[in-house]
Amino acid sequence: MIRCDNLVKIYKTADTEVLALQGLDITIEKGEFMAIIGSSGSGKTTFLNMIGGLDTPTAGKLFVDGKDIFKLSRKEIVEYKRKTVGFVWQNNARNLLPFLTAEENVMAPLMFSNDRKKRERAVELLSLVGLEHKRKEYPLKMSGGEQQRVAIATALANNPKILLADEPTGAVDVKTSERIFEVFRHINKEFGTTVVIVTHDMKLADKVNRVAAIRDGKISMEKLSSAYSKGLEGVADFTEVSILDRANRVQIPKDVLQKAGITGNRVEVSVKDGHVELAAPKTTK
Ligand SMILES: Nc1ncnc2c1ncn2[C@@H]1O[C@H](COP(=O)(O)OP(=O)(O)OP(=O)(O)O)[C@@H](O)[C@H]1O
Ligand SMILES: [Mg+2]
To answer: How confident is the model over 10-35, as pLDDT tens digits?
Structure first.
């Protein structure tokens, strides 16, 4: 569904250049339910913006649903944003129009010709997120979690193939965030929508099918969701899938190296039974 090929993004300001993405490669299959994690400033929002058709890279390629996104015309991009992707923003205030009710917000992106159909669809989506009873309410009179759920309903209005959500549970309590996550899972299961969520919440990251971590604008490790929420502590045999870059380099997180007792900048590399092993050198000179 999504294939990123060596994406690079440099933000240029008056006197500085920020390398937000430095050669990001990732493939996301149709129907995947995945989480992107990474520290603040690692490039998560930049990455989602590219998939969402909101930003263009400095270099690299991005294919979504078979289309070469950065080759689309302006008109095609508008169409793409409407039909292929739904977006839930990191900043809640950006998701909803304050002068429209919940129902009107969900109706806004709909392309049906008549109001009755739009309203029906809006009610259907609001009940999907458990907020049918709040349809006449204005966003500012709703809680953060409720606003977020209306935002999800709005993002789903045109039945997109991909749902992107940037920290959708950043500002709500644990219970609400679990509820929001359930909505995502339901959408993924019921409609086969490919769901990509940026989150800081390791507990939630454990509930998806795959987690990819961005470090300094690169996908540095990916793993099937398993013992992640437990962190690396207490996991004796730590296995994860890392990505080899074009120069066959692999980035190994510091905590993993520490776990293996590798502290300096030298490692012993050996091949055993079809495995490549990295270990602290036996003798240090
Ligand atoms: N419009 C911009 N102009 C200049 N620099 C930018 C711009 N947008 C992002 N950056 C920089 O690019 C880097 C990546 O930013 P990005 O917003 O993608 O990070 P993030 O992983 O989403 O962080 P957070 O978890 O805080 O939301 C950061 O160093 C940021 O300061
Ligand atoms: Mg961000």
So the answer is: 888 877 888 888 888 899 999 999 99
Domains of the chain listed by start with CATH number: 2-222 (3.40.50.300), 227-279 (2.10.260)
Q: What residue owns the CA closest to ligand 1's atom 11?
A: 20
Using the mean position of ligand 1's atoms as its centre, give its distance from the Cα of residue 41 in Å.
5
Q: Which residues line ligand 1 (CB under 6 A)?
A: 11, 13, 18, 20, 38, 40-46, 90
* Of 18, 49, 56, 200, best ligand 1 pocket probe by most atoms within 8 Å of the beta carbon: 18
Ligand 2 center to residue 90 CA distance, Å?
7
Number of residues that make up the chain = 285
Of 163-177, 200-214, 229-243, where does mean pLDDT reach its minimum? 229-243
Those residues whose beta carbon sits under 5 angstroms from the ion ligand 2 are 44-45
* Model confidence at 279: pLDDT above 60: yes
In a mutational test of the pocket of ligand 1, which residue from 9, 45, 88 has the highest number of ligand atoms less than 8 Å from its CB?
45
Confidence (pTM): 0.77
At residue 227, the pLDDT reads 39
Residue 43 Cα to ligand 2 midpoint, Å, equals 7
